[in-house]
Amino acid sequence: MGKTHLKMTVNGKEVELLTEPRQLLIHVLREDLNLTGAHIGCESSHCGACTVDMNGMSIKSCTVFAAQAQDSEITTIEGLGSPDGLHVLQEMFKEHHGLQCGYCTPGMITRAYRLLQENSNPTEEEVRFGISGNLCRCTGYQNIVKAILAAAAKMNEVKESA
Amino acid sequence: MIASAFEYHKPDTVDGVVSLLSKWGDDARVIAGGHSLIPVMKQRMTDISHLIDLGGIAELKGISIDGDKINIGAMTTQHELIASEALAKAAPLIREASLQIADPQVRYLGTIGGNVANGDPANDMPGLMQTLDATYYLTGPEGSREVKARDFYEAAYFTAREDEEILTAISFAKPSGGFAYEKQKRKIGDYATAAAGVMITIEGGKCTAASVALTNLSDTPVYCAAAVDALVGSSLDDAAIKTAVKAAVDASDPVADTRGPVDFKKHVAGVIVKKAITSAVARA
Q: Domains (ranges, CATH) in chain B?
């Protein structure tokens, strides 16, 4: 039961490392790759704090073995924006006060990103249903929903003017 | 929470899986979406030395609709079931039920095959497949065989599947008439306190065919033959529906847990079955 040679594309960069098949993807990201944006909350696939994008799907990286991520394409919050160039979702979370303690935020935004890729003009109800796998204990969700709807509107504006 | 060490295998054919299962027996388990298996491995409630990932087998994926027959590969995810417009048109009951399973992230990875084969009485797909009178396809060292969903479940986590077999696909006849899958749960992501699938066909003011099955109200899904008998031949008047609801509740056998005591669950079962029948009748 030796180590396995894991290859992935993370935030556009190819990475290679040795890990055990049983290692969880969240630990590979945080401990081997120093991408500490995705958080470990409940560690039991309920809270969504560890959400990252894998092969075009929002997934809870606490419930994926490293071995299952072989050859996958991963985007974490670090891949969406940077302090110098925030993603429009990050900007809107800031503007609409969509976070307080910030613990759920990377998972929430990464999930919202995929939701808007699939449905660029969601209703409020669709946003609420779409983020129902992400728990926030601070905001009461109201401002998170506002932020996501505002980001959708902004992204559509940019598309129209392009 | 880290699982015990295991050896990881990712064969690309069903035969490859079966030969690994034959070789390692009880020490091996297959993994589909992993959202039932990984949590119990992390809690070390199960000891698996060989994990066989079904994710690399193309023949296990996909939805095909051929005339009146619908075939779904075991590795088709709930997200794919929901996203398929063709399936939503042919069997809208599947989308209605799938949207009530877990949450978006879990549905991207959770598969129909894992949901039905695991034998967890809390899973929604087994009751749904009994509603649809689906057939499961199993492949093992002796070849392939078919088992009806209504005959598959023996007790919690015990099914007609042998250790060396895997479930490869599910098929069912394109449903007609009215349908509903109603689920009462405490929150999104929770298992059902009570859930029911119902199909109703009405011709000339009379119910000519029906199906009723329950989720998480016994140690297996429950197909309610007595409830069906109460509906078929009736004009679906209040008395007939009342008799059917009582028959379904009588067929349930829930246990007390964090979702409530037995009496409460039976009460919720009655409410949910009535709601599902009423909704199916309205759509018939």
A: 7-56 (3.30.43.10), 58-172 (3.30.465.10), 179-283 (3.30.390.50)
